[in-house]
Write a structure and sequence with these properties.
about 180 residues, Thiol Ester Dehydrase, Chain A, about 30% strand, alpha+beta, two-stranded antiparallel ribbon
């Protein structure tokens, strides 16, 4: 019964995010799109991440991209803990993967993560995973939604997140 209730709750949350006009959790509702922050995250494939075939099991890519996404946030001065403490959560509402090559235990991999857009309640990321030879082995996209931690109601991206993204984006533009 509890599993059915959880499934219904997830369906309800997705319905709220997609179909219902989002309520504002922050003081101001931003309609402006914010785009393009990039970050690289490198790591080694651990033995428990591999399957009986000796390759990285597909389920681990979710973990790799989750870590890469929060390392991007950390690089602009935000931590997931600070987002939660401010009363927000970021559930993933959509994932898409494209597996191009396999990889194995102890491989040194680099994830190039791009925050593509923040618009309303949603935030989009893309990922490119490269091996040691700089060959693209996987591509992915995720879409997340800002929701209130206690209510799970969709809400606009909080101002402190938008400001950190703006500041980082302006800094990256100044470098280019």
């Amino acid at each position: 019964m509890e599993i059915q209730a959880r499934k219904l709750l997830k369906v309800y949350i997705i319905f709220l995010i997609i179909a219902v006009l989002p309520q504002t959790c922050s003081l101001s509702m931003r309609k402006k799109e914010q785009t393009m922050i990039e970050h690289e995250y490198t790591f080694r494939v651990m033995y428990p991440d591999t399957d009986q075939m000796g390759t990285v099991h597909h389920s681990n890519y979710v973990k790799y991209y989750e870590t890469a996404r929060w390392e991007l946030f950390r690089s602009i001065g935000l931590s997931y803990h600070s987002v939660e403490e401010a009363g927000y959560m970021l559930p993933v509402i959509s994932m898409k993967f494209r597996f191009l090559k396999t990889t194995h235990y102890d491989a040194h991999l680099t994830v190039k993560t791009t925050l593509k857009t923040i618009k309303g309640v949603r935030i989009w990321f893309t990922y490119k995973l490269f091996n040691e030879q700089n060959e693209l082995i996987n591509e992915a996209e995720t879409e997340l939604a800002f929701v209130g931690r206690d209510s799970w109601k969709p809400c606009a991206a909080p101002d402190f997140v938008l400001k950190a993204v703006d500041k980082s984006h302006k800094h990256e533009q100044a470098i280019v």
